[in-house]
Amino acid sequence: MTRLVSGGRSGGVGNRTRTVSGSGALFALPRALGSGSSFSLRSGSNANLALAGTSIAAASALAAGASQVALVRESVGTGAAARAVEYAVTLTGATAAPTPTPTPTPTPTPGTYLPANAALAGAYGLGLLVSAYAGPALRLRRASDGAELDIGFSGQALDIAAASAFQGASPLTVAAVYDQTGNGRHLTQPTASAQPSLWLGEGGPIITNYDTDSPMLIPATLAIPRADCAVFMAARTPGQAATCGYWAFGAGATDYGLTSPRSAGNLAMQPMVAGASIPATATNARALGVNNLAVLGLVSNAAKQVVHRDEQTADYPAAAAAMLNTGGEVGEAIEYGGRTDWRGFVVYAAAPTDSEVTAIKAALKTVFSTAEPATLSFLAGGDSIVFGTGGANNRTITAALHHRSAAGVLYRNIGIAGHRLELGYTGFNTASAAYLTPGVPNVYVSDYGHNDIKTNVTDAPSALTAVAAMKGQARHMAAKLRAYGFDMVIWQEAYADVTFTADQEAARDAWNAWLRSGPLAEDGLPCFDAVDTVASDAAFILSDAETDAGRGMAQGSNSSDGVHPNEVHAGTRADHLRAAYAAIPFALKYVPVAGQQGLPYTGYTPRVVKGTAPYAFTLAPGSAALPAGLALDAGTGVISGTPASAGTRSGIVLRAADSLGATAEAAFAISVAAAATITVADQTESWNAADATGITVAMPGVVNAGDVLVAIMTVDAVPAVTWDNATAGAWTQRAQYVSNSNAHTLMVFTRTADGTEGGRVLNVALSGSQQAVTRVLRVTGATGAVEMGSYLRSAATSADPPAITPSWTGASLDIAVLALDGTAAVSSGPAGYSGFMTRASSASGQSTNASAWKIASGAEDPGAFTLSASGQWVAATIALQAS
Predict the structure, then answer these.
(1) What is the DSSP string of 525-565?
(2) Which of 339, 554, 569, 527 is nearest to 421 (CA)?
(3) For helices 460-484 and 502-516, what crossing angle results, to 10°?
(4) For residues 177 and 331, what is the distance between their CA atoms, to the nearest angstrom?
(5) How do residues 482-501 score in pLDDT, each as one tens digit?
(6) What pLDDT does residue 843 have?
């Protein structure tokens, strides 16, 4: 098995097996420790094998069926930073493909088949793809006694009855998948230990490769040109977060292939050309997640490569010309936790036309039943219990869920081995469009907690601080998930493991108790729609050896390492999770929003859980009426309007009825604050018509202590400004924005008045001799909190300040401001704004200052100032919080 000598986990490097032919370089070694690592062979390696650069080479060809082992060590770094991994590579000499058992030529079965195409080079699968084919589908091997048997078709489908009868109670592996073109280019795997499994249970039949190097081998006789070919599969990577390979041509290195890389969260597909994976981006394969059975394709021609997932496509640059004639592999899990399932594989030696591609995909959808529409989507995040690493016999919960659910239920997995809540919520501060499925309910399943406790709890005091931190992180994460678009959040209780200390076990108990207590998230809603209590369910016995039903897993029957679930336990845990989801009731979630008298009000958009759209919203019988001025939208459930009076209206009960007649209700109160008294009580203007370095600014005649003074200054250049504090007192500069080409400056200063400013004339110095205009607004009813929005600059005749969204709730005084260079006049301010004033410093229009204001709440987009002609300008918006 893989052994990490130092430096942490091995990163999923496992023992490798290859069936090879010939001598020389036979296997290219993958780098697990980065580009700077080096390879060596350890003592005990077969004498016929040696390193040739980064490949294993054989001095002489291996006999058919004979195996030779190379013991590989990869190392990097020195001293305390040294890391190394050790693993075995087993090379086995190739044997001839098995000869299919002759079968009588049947009458062609009615159905949908691949369209006729002279370039069809190979057709393989668990369904009949070529109407004229009369042979078997595949050869199976029974693990109990090594017996082998060819299995054919029943109609157009695999003969499940024959396969089940041959299986008995023993697992089945696949020795060969026969070529239905009649060319004899069969996919084989002569090494019994490397054969993939045939799954006949829930979600089957399917050829499955999990966590091991067990692909079917492509024969060298299946030769195609890389720059003019096409490969299609009916396949999936069911709920995995590890790198999985769909197919690859090439001996050792990948000359051409299609993968689902771990770096893309296993929510993307990427072609590989000459051993290099082409990165997925937001505009190509990032959105082509493959977690449920789908028709995948890679069509290559002289112009480009096109990746297909059902009807989705993504373009990549054209591949360099090369002949692919050294064999390859179909279906491979490249890392621990990886899984590739497939039902069909079709190869063309020339790129089909667009219409032919459509017909090929339609046939594969029909034969392999991949066309079911999505009805429900799950995304699982967390640590290695979700990710699926930890041992060769372990399995992810999402993979187990796949085998227990309808084909239209999607499962994605973005778990990361070793991940913790404190490490950033698996990327949800920078979310990916691939995480959500449009048009269906989206459910996030979280399994965080184990590693936070394992890492941060060392004694009783640290148990308290660690759990407190986890609570805050979970509250944040739950709100982020809903804001991003998830309809439901399910959290699974944390498991212990066999190494937990008493303090860690106490922290786990406290964490799980908090999960079950119904805590609220940062958005005011309950954190979770359901908590999967599998770790504390007294009826859920992990094994006969366990005396504490909530403490971890027994090594052996439920886990190969005492931490991560194996096939048995993952299936049982998946059943428990499905039950937790099924128990979520139809519900209406609502967070009341406070309003203010006289200001426009828009309430919360209700969240409906588990209903069947469309919904109708009403006030339930016995509900209190809405505050005067507000009304309910029956289609959206949003309450809006302008409250006519202040006060709190309790006892409001909103009801949602779904299309099937089910109803859910939410009770709440709406509080309306008294009308805001914030206003601009006075404005003064000061300007100098000639250039000067010293200017004066007049204050309003009456200024009371607590008033907020806002000075809007425009200057025909970019000078430094110095207020004479002896006459002016201290002012806070809020912004300095410059129009294009440094032609003009807009500056904003504020000061909370002490009551001595009334009628005074203040001295202000400029670093250069310029014309300037300064307008001072006296604002009453303000708290003193001031925020500036961003700015916009242009030469257009419509000067539109950008929108501003204050950080506070409630009323604001929003001031739109403009600085204009040139002789153009400002004819009007933003529509709906009061107090519009404009002033040019001189007849030549060296500096023009304009402003207007409005009382509003929340986000505000002022609209434009109108100019008589074009000129360089800069505009912005100021918000002052109402008391």
Answers:
(1) SBS-SEEE-TTT-TT----TT-SSTTS---BTTTBSSSSS-
(2) 527
(3) 40
(4) 12
(5) 988 899 999 988 876 777 89
(6) 82
Rounded to 10 degrees, what is the CA torsion of 397, 403, 407, 412?
20
Q: Please state, in angstroms and rounded to a whole number, the distance separating the CA atoms of residues 276 and 669.
A: 59
| Residue 531, both tokens | 């908590």
Write the burial class of residue 807 (CB in 10 Å: 0-12 exposed, 13-18 middle, 19+ buried).
exposed
Chain-centroid distance of CA 642 in Å reads 39
What would the two tokens of residue 372 be? Answer: 């079911």
- 58 three-class SS: strand
**Using an 8 Å Cβ cutoff, are 219 and 350 in contact?**
no
User: Which tokens is 9 given?
Assistant: 């986990």
| Residue 733, helix vs strand vs coil | strand
User: Which structural domains are found in the chain, ordered by start?
Assistant: 3-93 (2.60.40.60), 120-368 (2.60.120.200), 376-582 (3.40.50.1110), 587-673 (2.60.40.10), 679-882 (no CATH)
The answer to whether residues 326 and 250 touch, using CB atoms and an 8 Å cutoff, is yes
Neighbours of 385 (CB within 10 A): 30
User: Which residue is associated with the tokens 């399994």?
Assistant: 447
* Three-class secondary structure of residue 355 per DSSP: helix
In angstroms, rounded to a whole number, what is the distance separating the alpha carbons of residues 427 and 422? Answer: 12
User: CA–CA separation, 862 vs 869, rounded Å?
Assistant: 21
pLDDT value of position 436: 78
Using CB atoms within 10 A of its CB, is residue 106 exposed (0-12), middle (13-18) or buried (19+)?
Answer: exposed
Contacts of 26-31 with CB under 8 Å at 24 or more apart are 26/55, 26/56, 26/57, 26/58, 26/91, 26/251, 26/252, 27/55, 27/56, 27/89, 27/91, 27/252, 28/54, 28/55, 28/252, 28/253, 28/275, 29/54, 29/55, 29/56, 29/72, 29/74, 29/89, 31/74
Task: Please state the rounded mean pLDDT for residues 67-92.
Answer: 79
Whole-number Cα distances in Å, 119 to 50, 230, 346, 774:
40, 10, 11, 79
Which pLDDT does position 562 carry in this prediction? Answer: 60
The tens digit of pLDDT for each residue in 203-224 reads: 678 898 765 567 899 999 999 9
d(CA 409, CA 380) in angstroms, rounded, equals: 13
List Cβ neighbours of 878 (8 Å cut-off, separation of 6 or more): 710, 734, 748, 786, 787, 788, 789, 804, 814, 815, 817
Q: Are strands 761-780 and 679-698 parallel, antiparallel or unpaired?
A: antiparallel
What's residue 252's pLDDT?
Answer: 65
